[in-house]
Amino acid sequence: MFKQTLNQHGIVATKTRVEILELVANKNIFMNAYDIKEYLNHLDISTIYRTINVLEENKILSKRYNEDRNCFTFKYVSHSHSHKLTCRACNKVVEIDFCPMNVFDKDNEVSSHFIITDYVFELYGYCENCQ
Length: 131
Description:
Blueprint: H1 2-8, H2 15-27, H3 33-39, H4 45-57, E1 61-66, E2 71-76, E3 83-87, E4 93-96, H5 106-112, E5 123-125
Parallel strand pairs: 3-5
Antiparallel strand pairs: 1-2, 3-4
Helix pairs in contact: 2-4, 3-4
């Protein structure tokens, strides 16, 4: 499955890329390079950084800045459009089933003289177990 995902993006499906992609997808939480290194300790940290950068540039991983950890973290992007709630304590991620950007309609885009090409919408809080 992940080899196919890489190939569809024109990326060579090396063992390292597949390993990192499988780990991040299966964990289903935002992870930084050192989190990945904990599970794949046979990989060099610079290799992990290069790989996650390639995956993020090709929109296979999403990137966000984690203020609490003071670093960038990455998560596998499912191919459906979704938004997530992230627990600040345990990093649990829950998808929400609506798009908050739907309130920003084409009239707003026209009146602001700005064409929206992309956006980031992140929600953080504490899950039921961490409250």
